[in-house]
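agent> step 3/5: call structure_predict on target 'LemA family protein' (Naasia lichenicola).
agent> reason: downstream docking stage needs a structural representation; sequence fetched in step 2, passing through unchanged.
tool.input:
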Amino acid sequence: MEILIPILIVVALVVIVGIYLWATYNSLVTLGVRVDEAWSDITVQLKRRADLIPNLIESVKGYAAHEKGVFEAVTRARAETLSASTPAQAGEAENHMQSALKSIFAVAEAYPQLQASQNFLQLQSELVDTEDKIQASRRFYNGGVRELNTKVKIFPNNLFARGLGFTQRDFFEVSEPAAIAEPPRVQF
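tool.output (status=ok):
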């Protein structure tokens, strides 16, 4: 009987540690999937915005054909956005896209006929909606990354999380916060 009590205590501790590891592993997997889903949402919205850009450029081109530099900058920013595969690359592409969109809308302000165009107004509305969705997706992604990073860093999870393949993820941040502090002005 005396030897049975220490064995039961050891077995109980092993079971408790096993349950803790199982629950922690499952929560880390869940958070990882949530972050992956959120990143997918961001890429979908960035792609949607990139798909709107050629139509927007064509609408403005008819009125401001001499603004070739602005159109080239927007096209470069669009290509950079589509090729971004990490949060850091996407953040840098976001800086360039915001700057390019501000330029194209500054050009559009000089053309009252363009501002009255139904097609241009519809594109503006879709772009505003997409920008809102990008912002929401970015917040959701960063919230998921925050939860996952916290779970990976806290003790005792930090002792075994890396061994199980869980690492911290990068936040979706822009290198120049001033570039996105004010969204492109699309209301005329």
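agent> step 4/5: record observation. Helices lie at 4-61, 68-83, 87-109, 112-115, 118-153, 157-160, 177-181.
agent> proceeding.
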